[in-house]
Each structure stands twice: as C-alpha cells, then as structure tokens.
Design a protein that fits this description.
Number of strands: 6
Number of helices: 7
Distance between the termini: 19 Å
Radius of gyration: 20 Å
Helix content: 25-40%
Structural class: alpha+beta
C-alpha cells in the first residue's frame, strides 16, 4: 500500500449537491458528476483500472464531464448504480492511502480531515490545533509541510502559502517546523491543554515533498 505524499487538509474534489437535494447548476456538481469526480481523483492519484473499466470511465466522461461549453450541475445518468459502486470503491482506495493521522471523508465533497481521536497511534498537529481552545501563535508553522520550489529553495507552509523560507536545505526548513512544534507544546501547556501537549510524541514527522 502506498501513502499520498502530496496532500492538504480540506476538499479534494469540487462540491456537489447531495442526493435528493435541488440541483445548483453552475455552482455544484450533480450527484452523478460528483461520483465521477471521485473516480477521477483516485485515477489521478494512481489507481489503476482495467481496460474495460477505463472505457466505462470514458463513456461517463462523455455524458457528465462539464467543459467550457457545458455547465456543471446539470448532467445525470439514466442508471447511476454502476458509477455509485465505482465511486465507493475509489473512495475506499483513497481511504487506505490517507496520511497517518488523517482520513478521507465524503460529505458534499471528498475531504481530507485530521483524525480527532487523541488515543490514536498517530495524532496530527492539525488535530491538536483544531481541538485546542486557546491562542496558539506557533500553530500555523507547526502544522506546515516542507516543499521544494522550482528554483530549488525549500519552504515551510501549507497548500497555499509559504510561512518560512527560502531555506538552502531541506534540513533547515524542517528544523524551523520542528522548532515551531516545540513552541506549540509550550503554548498548549500555558493554555491549560496539557492533554494535547502530551500527544507530541505521536505527531507524525514533518511532511516533505
């Protein structure tokens, strides 16, 4: 089993209307379009399909995939049962590859969320930050990932912003995040959340990609 290394907290697909709810053309996918997006997400992330299944995906794409001339939130299938089944299999495939301390959940989109169980073998920093009810200035950097830019420099940040860098080496960038995690533990204790601070030994390594 492989684990996703390039990841972010939050939605990984476009949002769609829930079954039985009024459609929102131009704003949200139909349930069938969302199911197709779930199948597509797993394919993008490495899930392999048989030739027959790939052909079926192409057929669904012709019926459902919005383009610049086709509005999303409109198209449905006469019989969506096979697509529903395939989307369920794709979601299960994704769930097996969630980073340690996180889980894929389907709401009106497929979202990656931190597991909020403090007894779990791995507790994500994002989970600690979400559960804390006090000011944590170090939280943003402590929950950061480290990634390399096209220019070869290293940065610490999230999926959208860089919070520290550029750094010449990956080790320097990782050390900045580890330092922020030490500060986060101190801030949790000062805020009366030692229960959260005590999970620090089970925080995952700083993600690097």
């Amino acid at each position: 089993m492989t684990v996703l290394t390039r990841w972010h907290v939050g939605p990984w697909t476009t949002r769609g209307t829930l079954p039985g709810r009024p459609l929102e053309p131009g704003r949200k996918r139909t349930p069938d379009e969302l199911n197709f997006d779930v199948v597509g997400l797993a394919r993008i992330l490495g899930r392999r399909l048989s030739g027959r299944d790939e052909l079926q995906v192409r057929l669904w794409q012709n019926e459902l995939r919005p383009t610049h001339t086709r509005q999303c939130g409109v198209h449905t299938l006469a019989d969506p049962s096979l697509l529903q089944e395939t989307a369920g299999e794709a979601l299960a495939w994704l769930a097996e590859r969630a980073p340690a301390g996180y889980e894929f959940v389907r709401t009106d989109a497929v979202e990656l969320r931190p597991v909020l169980d403090l007894r779990a073998p791995v507790v994500a920093v994002d989970a600690v930050v979400q559960l804390a009810d006090c000011a944590l200035p170090a939280a943003r950097l402590a929950a950061s990932h480290v990634r390399r830019s096209a220019a070869g420099d290293w940065y610490a940040g999230d999926a959208v912003c860089n919070w520290s860098g550029p750094h010449e080496t990956v080790e320097a960038a990782v050390d900045v995040v580890r330092g922020a995690r030490v500060e986060l533990v101190e801030q949790l204790i000062a805020g009366g959340r030692r229960d959260l601070a005590d999970t620090a030994s089970r925080w995952p390594d700083v993600p690097v990609y």
